Amino acid sequence: MKKKLAISILLVAILLGAISMTALVMRNNKQSSHSAPPSSSSHKQESYEKTIELDQVYKESDTYATYYRVLKSDGTYIVVQDRANIYRTQADLDKAGNEEEMAVTPSIHYRTGTYKINGNDIKYTSNSSTAIYFSTVANVKDGKYYSIEQQNHNSNTVWTKKKNGYNTKENVVLKLYKSDYSIPNTEEDFLEQYTYDPSTKDDR
Known about the structure:
Number of strands: 11
Order of helices and strands: HHEEEHEEHEEEEEHE
C-alpha cells in the first residue's frame, strides 16, 4: 500500500512539474512577442518621394538604367539616363550580352523638354535628346565614347499623382529618391564631361 502511495505521489509531482514548465514557457513566449523589437530590415528600406520639388534632382533605377531627373522652375526638365555605369566590370557587361543574346552597348542619354502641372498630372513634352555610346566598361570609366546620336522630339508623357506616388499611364509607380547628382544644364555641358574618340569603337 505504501509503495502504491509513493508511486502516486511521484506521478503527481512529475505532472505538476510538467504543468509548471509549460506555463513558464508560455509566459516567456508571450513576453518575447511583446518585447521583441521590429525587424531591422523594415528600417533599411528607404522610403521614396511621393511629391516632387522643383529644382531638386531625383534618382530612379530599373534593371536597365539609372535615371536622374530635375523639373526646373522655368518650366523645363532634364533627364540623364545612364545605361553605362550600371556595369561595374567588363564581365558584367559580357554577361548582360549573353543574357540578351546580342551585344549590349553602354550608353548615356541626355534629354530635355518642357512640362506643365495640371492638378495631379504632370505632362512632359520632349524636345531633344543626345546619346553617347561606349564600347567597353574601361572606356566608360575613362569617359571615351565612340559614337553620338542627336535627335529632336515632340512626344508627350503624363505622370499622375496617386496615394502611392507618381504613376505612369501603364500604372507603374515611379520610385524617386532625392539625389545630389549634378545634372548638366545644357547639352554642351553634358558633352564636355566626355571625350569623343571613334578609335575606341573596336576596343571590345
